[in-house]
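Entry:
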Amino acid sequence: MTEILWLLIVIGGPILIAVLLAYAMLNRRKRSTGEVAAQRSATRQLYEEKEKPAPAPLNKVATPDESRETPATRSLRAERARADAEEELEEGLEDTFPASDPVSATSTTTTGAPKQRRNGQ
């Protein structure tokens, strides 16, 4: 009885996989030329959006004359720029986290080649 079961597994398994692969290959749908053109157009638009200059930030302090800027407004503008840069860095780190390796909590202290044993010891 167990020989028949193994025979079904050994012969039937590969046959089943072959049938499923043939079915998948026969039912693969090729995209129409319209779909391909729409995809290319959408990709081009996305790349063009990235190349456009970014709009001015809404939280920027508007000054009529940049040369008459007070130290307080320069300090505020610098602080906002640092906060924006830090926020972008934090967002970038969060976006790349799954792809990074976890930080190792241990370190190796062994350096160099292992000591060689002498004859008689």
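The mean pLDDT is 77.
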